[in-house]
Design a protein that fits this description.
Strand content: 5-15%
CATH topology of the largest domain: Nucleotidyltransferase, domain 5
Low-confidence stretches: 296-303
Strand order of the largest sheet: 6-5-4-7-8
Structural class: alpha/beta
CATH superfamily of the largest domain: Ribonuclease H-like superfamily/Ribonuclease H
Radius of gyration: 22 Å
CATH class of the largest domain: Alpha Beta
Number of domains: 2
Shape: elongated
């Protein structure tokens, strides 16, 4: 991962004007005026957050169509929020973000985080080779049954290609019928699947004729040669440390956004481009396009 320090950030984005110019050049690298046909002839229109062609007949708003469009919060605060969220391994709470960037209320910081996490959502990747599959339970401590089937818990399912990409999904249960679509859509033929002893995985592997190796956690077996689920369990550990230690309480309604944040960070961990620059580049993606892509995938799952 490339190094990008706070001093680098301060030097590059000291003002709202600098942030707006970055957004403009990302979204419109070679703007062509639809009225006069000239290319790269746009300039800032006074103090307004827009750019206008030299012909004076066409105006561009870099914020339009992004998560920033209707926000009255300074761009420097948005950019700094992106920097903080990309820098922190265990996440940044909304209260901490509020203190750092100086917004007026906790709700404003929470809304900003929700918007930024929405940019981190991705449709699942197609996995191959050696793939670990596992699930974890997220939720507060309660009396009664523990582990799978515990009341008041949310199930997060994951598939991780060793030395590769991670997929996650919120699922209602760990029945074979529930998990099967995640394998038929996301796992290549010839994949070697590694799981614990959950019967659902055995049924799915048999149905799809996938090579399947297991470790029996219930008997204290966690490694059998090169067979284990330690890689994905390491991800669950990082996720839970953040949820418990940083955020403390997360609503099941928005849990998928928190999981998406950590999935995205995991998947770009080896990128030569810093996470801040990767996240910043996603500002040029229209939220509607991202929502439609995720929504289409979720509809496919529901079907």
């Amino acid at each position: 991962m490339a190094s990008y320090t706070f001093h680098d950030f301060q030097r590059e984005y000291p003002t709202d004007d600098a942030c707006l110019h970055k957004l403009f050049t990302m979204r419109f690298p070679n703007p062509t005026c639809p009225r006069c046909g000239e290319v790269n002839k746009y300039h800032r229109r006074g103090a307004r957050p827009t750019y206008i062609c030299q012909c004076g007949k066409h105006e561009i708003s870099p914020k339009k169509g992004t998560i920033l469009e209707k926000s009255a919060t300074d761009l420097t605060k948005w950019f700094y929020a992106m920097f903080l969220m990309s820098q922190s391994r265990n996440g940044v709470s909304a209260l901490e973000l509020k203190r750092h960037i100086g917004v007026g209320s906790y709700q404003t910081a929470l809304r900003m985080q929700k918007q930024l996490r929405s940019m981190m959502q991705e449709a699942p990747a197609f996995l191959f080779g050696e793939v670990e599959a596992d699930e974890t339970m997220i939720g507060g401590k309660r009396k009664g049954k523990r582990g799978r089937g515990a009341a008041g818990k949310t199930v997060v399912f994951g598939q991780l290609q060793r030395k590769g990409t991670l997929n996650t999904a919120i699922v209602p249960n760990v029945k074979a019928a529930t998990l099967l679509p995640h394998f038929t859509d996301n796992i290549a033929k010839g994949t070697r699947l590694m799981t614990d002893e959950l019967s659902s995985y055995k049924k799915i592997a048999k149905f799809l004729e996938i090579d399947h190796d297991t470790v029996t956690h219930g008997a204290g077996q966690y490694v059998k040669g090169d067979v284990h689920t330690n890689t994905i369990e390491g991800f669950w550990s990082t996720l839970k440390r953040s949820l418990d230690g940083t955020h403390h309480v997360v609503s099941p309604k928005y849990l998928h956004l928190y999981v998406s944040e950590f999935q995205w960070k995991y998947n770009v961990r080896n990128s030569p481009i810093h996470m801040f620059d990767l996240l910043l580049s996603r500002l040029s993606l229209l939220p509607a396009a991202v929502a439609n892509r995720i929504g289409a995938y979720q509809s496919l799952r529901a079907a």
